[in-house]
Amino acid sequence: MPNERPTLKNQRRKRHSSSNHQSEGRGYIVSIKELCLAHIRGSFRMWGPSHCCLILCLWACLDALPVAVDKRKVSPPVEELEPPKSEDTGLHYDRYLREVIDFLEKDPHFREKLHNTDMEEIKQGKLAKELDFVSHHVRTKLDELKRQEVNRLRTLIKVKQDMNGEKGTSVDHQALLKQFEHLNHMNPHTFEVEDLDRLIQSATNDLENFDKDRHEEFKKYEMMKELERREHLKTLDEEARKKEEEHYEEMKKKHADHPKINHPGSQDQLKEVWQESDGLDPSEFEPKTFFKLHDTNGDGYFDEQELEALFTKELEKIYDPAREEDDMQEMEEDRLRMREHVMNEIDTNRDRLVSLNEFITATDRKEFQEPGGWETLDQNPVYTEEELREFEEHLAREEHDLNLKTNDLLKQREELERQQDQLNANKMELQQAVQHMERLKKTETPVQAKVPSAVEMLPGDTRPMSQGHQQDLPAHF
Q1: Which tens digits make up the pLDDT trace of 376-405?
Q2: Could you give the CA distance from residue 400 to residue 70 in angstroms, rounded to a whole number?
Q3: 242 near 122, Cβ under 8 Å?
Q4: More confident residue, 217 or 32
Q5: Which of 154, 175, 217, 360 keeps 20 to 30 A from 80, CA to CA?
Q6: Where are the alpha helices (DSSP H) in 238-320?
Q7: Could you give the C-alpha distances from 450 to 447, 453, 464, in angstroms and in order?
């Protein structure tokens, strides 16, 4: 196509390759309680036929004669504290968070309290107080994890300082560690109740703000896309600009021409999944069966990833990666909006999970059977012209500042190159002087003159006598 935009169309195909990864990654953004209970719920699903056979064999061995063991000579087994792998939350302190939760689950007392504590009590800090009752070896491991996290943060501070050109200056780590709220920086050695409370509160707040941040990033993406389009139009002549505008409007109309979008979480939307994905008769739709079919990990909850998977059929009505008019980044934003809407309607205890009871209760409401309409992104713009103008001015200021920094760096480079040239010239002069001195030493070696003895000298004459004359001289006694 002539006068094709150099960036946007080609970037859309690249974005689709990463959109699946983004949707999977977003499924990992789980609540603290989900993260804490993941291993508890999963442990009961691990028992298969092979485990049952093993239990029967052990039961049969109970009739065997006991073996006498001197307990004084047998050292008690030491529990290996290797944490299992769990989901990535997307937080910058994700590893620290997961390792702390994994090790706390190894303590029977804390595990029981965790299982019986709801999300609101966790937020209030009631769970953190149970840290005083965990076993010594778990507390020791938590102390080690905290020291590792503090060292990691100090390293990050040092790297950031070096990148800002402050290499070699002293660092006040205590002051800079205040910006990290997920631990008590005043005590960098031991893991206390305040550390667990801070970790839970920070993770809860950060996860709740994660969707908000993603909306802001998407808005910037859309505004940048529009600014690039307008800048591209400025490079075209009048005829080419007119064709490009007509093509743009045609793509918008093609994108808006799609089948009806069902309201997310409504009866019509779920029945469509029941029919097309599950291959079942929509007239036989049963909410409890539907829930169990799509609770893919069998933990009795819909997490964010499982919930978003229910909207794939609706999104496929609007978006196709093979079509030029469809942007896969917009598809992921629509998916996020659908999930947020359903969570706000169904998740009554705000733990970022949908339980079976919450789901069944929602299907009994009038809104489930008679929902309102649903507006997609093309019907609901994410920014105004005023916001676009302010964003453009912001970019202009950033570009101006970047140009100033670039010019300063170029001047510094030129000065360093000049100094290097001067050093090279001085070095060359010194080398030439050393070579000149060495040549003088070789060419100006002094000749030693022979000093005549007294017998070789005539009286009153300072000139030495020849060897022939010396033989004629009489001997003196």
Answers
A1: 888 888 999 999 999 999 999 999 999 999
A2: 80
A3: no
A4: 217
A5: 154
A6: 238-256, 267-276, 287-294, 304-309, 312-318
A7: 10, 10, 11
